Amino acid sequence: MRHLISTHLFVNHRLTTVWLDRIWDAGIPAVEIFCARQHLDYRDRAQIQELAHWFHDSELELWSLHAPMYRDDVWGRSGPNAVIDITETSKPKRIAAVDEIKRALEIAERIPFRYLIQHVGVPEAEWDERKLEAAFTALEDLKVFAGQRGVEILLENIPNAFSSSERLNYLLETTHLGLGYCFDVGHAHIMEGVEAAFQKMKDRIRATHLHDNDGEKDRHWFPYLAEGGTVDWKQAVGLLRSLGDEVPLLLELREVEGMERPLERVTEIFEKLESE
Question: What is the model's pLDDT at position 211?
Fold first, then answer.
């Protein structure tokens, strides 16, 4: 299986070609870029142009883009209006959220990528049938916009009432949107369990997110390295291998203060995953 990484590891730093050079030098062939405006400002033409020139001359592949979660550059701390939520029942607010995601999708016109990873609702959101209908309307619009740019939208399982494996299946079975999934191992671990979620999602899994936690909170810890990590990686890797080589192992990690040369640790993690 191919080894990929998300720039979520550096999300509190502006994404420059220096970070991309380091990823390539670590032997990683493709990357997922996390759209957070302090990191990748999808409205900043100068930043997009700089990255586009770099990718044009590089062998590193932009595999996927993680859709933005906030409009601001401080993780939504500027206020509730900064949250980007496609389940918003207010039509003007939902259209504004969809338009923000479309601005990120426009990156594909300069830097081609295969998938957009999209959340349905915000973390810990409660179930509401009206919000599910809003999500359908938003995703229907985004699917067309993405498809025109050669991008497929993948829904990610996240800790909320809309995004368990069962609820995601319900969404796709009732709306016939025909979307795929990004299977997040860490999120599954704190929800219904990795194997249970995988079995329900496996037919639509096109991408993965790998990270560890304590089974309670969404930590995005380094597998094998963090004290308190409880994901069974032997089991998880065995399940993912059954999908074949088309679905890569993609690490979505949180920066660890004081950790030197984190990409070397990433290489060690991939070696351990492959030995399972």
Answer: 98
